[in-house]
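# nightly structure sweep
# worker-07 picked up a monomer target from the shared queue
# config: single-sequence mode, recycle default, output format = C-alpha cells
# input follows
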Amino acid sequence: MLCVFTSIKQRVCFSIHALQERFLRWVKPPTTALVLGTLADLTRGKSELLAANALLRHQLIVLRRHIKRPIYPRIAQRVRLSVIDTPGGVGSSKQ
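# output follows
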C-alpha cells in the first residue's frame, strides 16, 4: 500500500515540475530577439532612432492619460480637514 502512495506522489511531483518548466519557458522572453534588435539598431541612423524614441514617448504619454489616478483634495480642503480632525479643533467637543 505504501508503494502505491509513493508512486502516486512521485508522478504528481514529476507532473508539477514539468508544468513549472513549461511555464518558465513560456514566460521567458527570447534572447535572440534582443540580440537581433540591438544589431539592427546599430545599423539605423540617429534621426531614425530619435523618431522611434519620440513615438515610444508619445505612447507612454497616451497610456498615462488613460490610467485612473486618485484625486487629491485641494490645499484648502486639506487644511480644513486637518483643523477639524485635530484634538481641540473645531469639530471636537470639550469635556
